[in-house]
């Protein structure tokens, strides 16, 4: 009934639903703002498993659901799991992929609170080439001393991001996440409020904030992980200029896990797979 009408999909996984140590994936479609279960996948992987195996199984799962229900999604949502992101991209190459807003905020908040770990390598030349006002010498401290990034600093006075700046950084990121050409802004003509101008303004705001406060470490992290040309389309809603998604998070799936575990599995400690499947098919799915 709903397959041909669904335009937004959300995918997420959870643990501790069965005694066989399988990870449970759920694919939900958006219907009038609510999540409709479309399919489930049980997957067990290990560090010794084949590289890319999880992504291959997820792609096959999404393809099977797409072909069975004739789904033509224009938006797909996941957390920051690259296997899920790549599987959606392979199955729906023309859809706009959207990272979950809540997971993005949690990732940034967690990283800003790790005081002693240096950021990954920041390509200042790439940033300056795209935006000439970005100073190529404004780089994290380890790049000025040829030290490897993503390691704990040996400097006892090193601080990745001072606490007073974190709330403002999250506020800025939230603003940039939600901006869209459909939402007018004071002082900006509608014809000038485009996807490109939004990104240019967002990068300028974040860079200026960090530069004025000497937060070279934070800027290096923000560009590399969020504001670079490769990462920006993953999370910024403004990159789909002709439409905007109803869903902003994967909370429909999170709510589904809450219902499954709170209403149907709370009296069962790691049930057998056949019991879990029975509950999913005959008790949970409408």
UniProtKB/TrEMBL annotation:
Record protein name field: MULE transposase domain-containing protein
UniProt xrefs under InterPro entries: MULE_transposase_dom
MULE transposase domain ranges (all copies): 10-104
A Pfam family reported for this protein in Swiss-Prot or TrEMBL: MULE
């Amino acid at each position: 009934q709903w397959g041909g009408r669904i335009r937004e999909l959300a995918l997420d996984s959870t643990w501790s639903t069965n005694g066989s140590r399988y990870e449970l994936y759920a694919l939900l479609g958006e219907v009038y703002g609510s999540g409709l279960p479309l399919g489930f996948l049980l997957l067990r992987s290990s560090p010794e498993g084949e590289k890319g195996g999880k992504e291959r199984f997820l792609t096959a799962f999404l393809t099977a659901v797409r072909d069975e229900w004739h789904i033509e999604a224009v938006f797909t949502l996941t957390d920051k799991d690259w296997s899920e992101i790549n599987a959606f991209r392979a199955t729906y190459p023309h859809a706009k992929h959207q990272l979950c807003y809540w997971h993005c905020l949690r990732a940034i908040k967690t990283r800003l609170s790790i005081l002693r770990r240096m950021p990954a390598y920041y390509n200042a030349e790439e940033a300056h080439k795209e935006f000439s006002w970005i100073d190529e010498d404004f780089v994290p401290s380890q790049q000025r001393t040829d030290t490897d990034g993503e390691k704990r600093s040996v400097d006892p006075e090193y601080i990745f991001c001072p606490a007073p700046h974190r709330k403002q950084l999250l506020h800025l990121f939230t603003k940039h996440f939600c901006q869209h050409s459909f939402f007018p802004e004071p002082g900006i003509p509608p014809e000038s409020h485009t996807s490109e101008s939004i990104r240019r303004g967002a990068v300028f705001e974040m860079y200026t904030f960090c530069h004025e406060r000497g937060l070279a470490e934070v800027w290096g992290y923000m560009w590399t992980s969020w504001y670079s040309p490769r990462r920006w389309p993953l999370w910024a809603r403004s990159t789909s200029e002709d439409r905007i998604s109803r869903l902003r998070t994967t909370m429909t799936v999170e709510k589904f896990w809450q219902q499954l575990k709170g209403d149907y599995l709370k009296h069962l400690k790691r049930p057998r797979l056949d019991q879990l499947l029975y509950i999913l098919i005959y008790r949970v799915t409408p």
